[in-house]
User: Fold this.
Amino acid sequence: MHEAAVSAFLVVATQWREVANRDGPARVTGLDYTAAKAGLEMAGITIGPDDFTRLRIIESGAVAAMNEERGWR
Assistant:
């Protein structure tokens, strides 16, 4: 059931938006949805609203993990 969302996430997992910070590492804000859409299209992957919601849940966890690793809470 979640296979499509996980597969889609893995295809676009390099398409992050980050905000630069003078006082430390950049903060990840989430996926760049324009780039993610292009990546999915080029990979021939089509997802519907339910899988997009699941992808966003995966994204949220990844953002939290990356920011925590960078010292952000």
In short: The first helix runs from residue 3 to 12. The first strand starts at residue 16 and ends at 19. The chain is about 60% helix and 10% strand.
